Description:
- About 40% of the residues lie in helices and about 15% in strands.
- It contains five helices and six strands.
- A hairpin with a 5-residue loop joins β4 (about 90-95) and β5.
- α1 (about 15-30) packs across α3 (about 50-65).
- It is flat and about 50 Å long.
Amino acid sequence: xxxxxxxxxxxIGRRTAQRxxxxxxxxxxxxxxxxxxxHASLQAEGAHIGLSTVYxxxxxxxxxxxxxxxxxRGGERLYRHRSSAEHRHYLLCRACGxxxxxxxxxxxxxxxxxARSSGFAEVEHTVELTGLCPDCRSN
Length: 139
């Protein structure tokens, strides 16, 4: 667990120990993790943080561009720390949850073209690609 609040905490408002703890746990997580699972792991480590604080912190990190978000098959949002503000897309295995970043230049170009041609500003998009990774496909 990180003892000092990571700098990303200042991007989402007041620097608090709870926000720093949530961010540190997200940074330590391997792959994408849901708010409930992250909360459970924090409680198992003895942290006294409410589930609503975890949800708010993860949402604020995503809004600030410091967390990537995908949805699992049940619709739950899963988060992964993003070390830079660079926007990324992922291919997510539906069976094991493994994820890998993908080259999404074509999607980004398409979204920018649609925004320009429609006259819209501040256009955001969500692209979720799921499948079975080679390991799960062979099982």
